[in-house]
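User: We ran a pulldown and think these components assemble together. Before we commit to crystallization trials, I'd like a predicted model of the whole complex to look at. Sequences follow.
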Amino acid sequence: MGSVLGRILTVTTFGESHGPGLGVVVDGVPAGLELKQEEIQADLDRRRPGTSDYVSPRREPDQVEVLSGLAGGRTLGSPLALLIRNRDARSGDYADFSRLFRPGQADFTYFAKYGLDPQPGGGRGSGRETAGRVAAGAVARKLLAREGVRVLSYTLAVGGVRAETIDPGFAETDALRCPDPARAKEMAALVDRVREEGDSLGGVVEVVAQGVPAGWGEPVFDKLDAALAGALFSIGAVKGVEIGEGFALAGKRGSEANDQMSAQGFLTNRAGGILGGISTGEPIVARLAVKPTPSISLPQRTVDLEGKERPIEIHGRHDPCLCPRIGPVAEAMTCLVLAEAMLFHHSRYGRGK
Amino acid sequence: MGSVLGRILTVTTFGESHGPGLGVVVDGVPAGLELKQEEIQADLDRRRPGTSDYVSPRREPDQVEVLSGLAGGRTLGSPLALLIRNRDARSGDYADFSRLFRPGQADFTYFAKYGLDPQPGGGRGSGRETAGRVAAGAVARKLLAREGVRVLSYTLAVGGVRAETIDPGFAETDALRCPDPARAKEMAALVDRVREEGDSLGGVVEVVAQGVPAGWGEPVFDKLDAALAGALFSIGAVKGVEIGEGFALAGKRGSEANDQMSAQGFLTNRAGGILGGISTGEPIVARLAVKPTPSISLPQRTVDLEGKERPIEIHGRHDPCLCPRIGPVAEAMTCLVLAEAMLFHHSRYGRGK
Amino acid sequence: MGSVLGRILTVTTFGESHGPGLGVVVDGVPAGLELKQEEIQADLDRRRPGTSDYVSPRREPDQVEVLSGLAGGRTLGSPLALLIRNRDARSGDYADFSRLFRPGQADFTYFAKYGLDPQPGGGRGSGRETAGRVAAGAVARKLLAREGVRVLSYTLAVGGVRAETIDPGFAETDALRCPDPARAKEMAALVDRVREEGDSLGGVVEVVAQGVPAGWGEPVFDKLDAALAGALFSIGAVKGVEIGEGFALAGKRGSEANDQMSAQGFLTNRAGGILGGISTGEPIVARLAVKPTPSISLPQRTVDLEGKERPIEIHGRHDPCLCPRIGPVAEAMTCLVLAEAMLFHHSRYGRGK
Amino acid sequence: MGSVLGRILTVTTFGESHGPGLGVVVDGVPAGLELKQEEIQADLDRRRPGTSDYVSPRREPDQVEVLSGLAGGRTLGSPLALLIRNRDARSGDYADFSRLFRPGQADFTYFAKYGLDPQPGGGRGSGRETAGRVAAGAVARKLLAREGVRVLSYTLAVGGVRAETIDPGFAETDALRCPDPARAKEMAALVDRVREEGDSLGGVVEVVAQGVPAGWGEPVFDKLDAALAGALFSIGAVKGVEIGEGFALAGKRGSEANDQMSAQGFLTNRAGGILGGISTGEPIVARLAVKPTPSISLPQRTVDLEGKERPIEIHGRHDPCLCPRIGPVAEAMTCLVLAEAMLFHHSRYGRGK
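Assistant: Here's a predicted model for the assembly, 1412 residues in total across the polymer chains.
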């Protein structure tokens, strides 16, 4: 279990890294939404591997097929089922690891939970699982666009290199999704160097939602920031989430942290667009701490299924830094959370206000 | 909506700051669990106001009444309903603010969402709402204790003062819940000084779960870290959550971030006890960024319900730093998340391993 | 578990027959709904015992206290917590049965499930549990009234006596809630006679929802009739539910069963107001088969906790026929289901149409 | 929305009658369950059209493809995604009805809800949607078989012809799934005659679950009978559900309705295996009232999308009586409800007892 998200906009993903395919069913999309297969494909293309030097070279077209829920360019109000076939699953690449727990991967915990031997490519624990999320997110994105909401992301930092200016348009053109034209080369050089050393890098992804009106989100357990943090933390490799100024606020005083107001609105947005779990109307800003890709070719210590210590070196098709591929997934999760919050809000208070 | 947590261990809180009372209904507790009202009371006493110089002086005994679900010292398998009457609600304290949006509070967003004037004490948005959570958490704590799980917390940092040694037992005796005997006075002195200046401080709370066996948590959306992060983020004033080394991992390499294994088990616990969303058997470690208390007596700019700019100074009964009171709430949320994950796991794989 | 209903309008009941009290928390009610405590009380008064010769003489005022969610005559958008204290719980009445499984009651199954000895009055399995449902239903009723929806019920049949004309207003004045002035005496006489014989009677309750617009309900698993049937079946003693012509349609032909249409709308309402799981705009009509009260004073065979056969005669305060008290509960469940369906529909399609 | 069932064993169906395909994702199946694609196929073959004179001649092989969740003959603990392609969708058959509301179908209500023109074959409202349910039910059936539970069904009555002896094995060989060898021909003759007259017939399906241990099901809203009734009512054309003696109990006395006990157990099973919402250990018996197939070739009155009255005659590929195809769907729904109840029970009380 665990592959179902949402109560009113319900997203169910399926698929393993080396099985027949991956996909998602999205239930709860209103009828009549204009939606093209190409729009879903466009978001998938932003996440798929094999597109640059900085992502896994596994050749997956990630071509989406719409199995249901869409006719004549409009949604039917019934579940959208979206299927992506696996095309380049080379289980042989993982034969060496079928009885070893790869450090930093879910092999050990899946074994402890399910009693299963490590699956090729991590099975359900693979990052490929997020393809279904991105496809679902593309649908939510369309729903939000009708309300004027726009969600974007970029790689704020990789290792020690941090973007200082933010140009989201530039990030879309950069292989690492760095938003700072002045730092992009430095960031790429660092990744190149570390990869050559057989190692990998962590980083920070920032996701921003613009145009969310004040009033979305629900108090207590369904706070918008709680839902968003949970959703972003559900992305593999994410080890931290902060909203607005986040951890920096822990070192500040109230007079430095509050967003005061004038007749023109909020004077600052330190809260990152959410107060008391409800959107303020300011941009929603979240940052994700992404751990370094665990699959590295440097030698590491691990054990086999019998608990006997064994050295391991992982050569294969791995991203040197996960940030550029997590960005689109983070956008998808943000879109899904916002669309759910919007529907909850509309159910009682309508689209007005 | 938004006051219901969990699908199999379902927690529903209710109550406003200045209404007749607060409480919680916990459905899904197995029959036959030994539970005493005093055990619930003990956890409530750790959170309640009026207990030291560093928390709000509002005098609330926070005496819990068990309305259902318990007989003869054992749970009945039916919902536990727990009620705490408000005793010291002075609505008059808030009369000045009934038409102003207090900066950093939910007044503005509740108004935007519900069309309600600001409620005394923040109404449902008040920190008092967490009393119900703590009561529910005490029940979950008992359930976890049967499995050998123990959850604790402390104030890791306040403003710039950070604990360097961790003595959880000391934290229980310290008014700020500082775990470092050598730093406790410095921390207290900082809070004293800032409070005298009419300001407040943020900080960092750390929560630790010991004894969680490997295998709890579900992949994809119900990852244990995702559920935990969402639950911790649902606590008011929390603006960031990290698990294990968290944001620090963003600046590291894979070789520095992976937890390697020997025949004796994991060599490190940088992951904070969770891999692939499933517990590893190592201690689960989470940190919360807590923003400074928004209610401060320094002058601030804000607007009234008509949008006209108005200055505001908030004098009243406020905690100078929320960390010592958030600790017990963070424990409660952690207990609830772990108990739910345990029940999900047991439903399929039993209590054995 | 099992005491939580709904995903968007969430109702959690609590309480045992002989514990401190009963109640309910309703989360998801929109802010600003006009609601008076007396309106909730009025619905409770229609269900409570001690009001006539035909219901249990247990003296329970069933006085409701609003603990949260309401201020100044309007809902706050936060959970409504409603508490009803038990006043006349005489556990001694059940002392004889504390080690016997009463036939037709949940004693045996609760013992099998929970390992609990039979609780006084059935504990959580008591019909008193429905007080919380009725209180919640009163809130949903108000929400529906804003949309022009009205829900009513009556006792269609008791034993072999069946109402032939339906006057819902008369039913409100009749102790058995019989809607047929010409049959009310006959129905009462039958109940008198059977009760004197130490026996009890089953019957049929009909519930009708008027004014539901076309379009509420969701396909497949959340069909309006599926939700309604499940909710009505959750009332103790209900052993069958049918909508529209129900079981009679099993013996008919398509040409006799379809509701044909003219320019003025449906020519008949054999479907009972629901087609394909979605409301048609015609009145929604459901009937509940109610089994005879299981507690009878005639001698019966049963076993004790050790499985040894023992005779049993149950003297005490029992309703001779449950129909008059199930009517208000059936209305409450219908209101809750309709309000949930309405909110789901509004979340996507607004209140228009 | 509405296509998601269950909270711990989560079933999401998708697909329209004339779209690319149908299917289901089942999340929550434990890892390690032995499962073959042919077992799923076997259940699908019992439901699919084109297999006899008494079901629609639409030629659909209903061949299932397992997209995920299964490897090496065992489940992986991850979602099982099952896909069935539509092969014989002739949209042209429905061209005449694209602007008319077919009586007794969901065309009108889907139009009212979604603003959609009637879809070919009813779109999502088609009986073909149940293919996904049957596939999911086959998985739940395997899960239950491990616990010794067996679920079967038969056509108890068609029009006025009712089976008097029950031979479930015979039913499996009969085109109408009649369980009474002595009545099967009469039943078939009635269907033949009515079909020739351009009309259709309703009937009653009975479903039985054997081997369910005492203790499954949860009180109040998640009662086993409530969940079962809701699930069975979610099958199109079902207008009534009763458990045990059902509506007949409404006409009886307590002394005739209670199941008394001896040292050997229950003396009768009038309750149909459920007391207080929890299984008794006796067979669970439910009956479904199935309305006549609404698509008939006799002339009927209806209106078009503009509300103008228009006559309609529906010639095409329709089942003369839906009972034989609803039986396997009712089994599937029963299996899903029981498996969910089992997992809920196991989560707290284990498999023992």
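Chain D is about 25% helix and 20% strand. That may be worth checking against your pulldown data before setting up trials.

User: Thanks, that helps.
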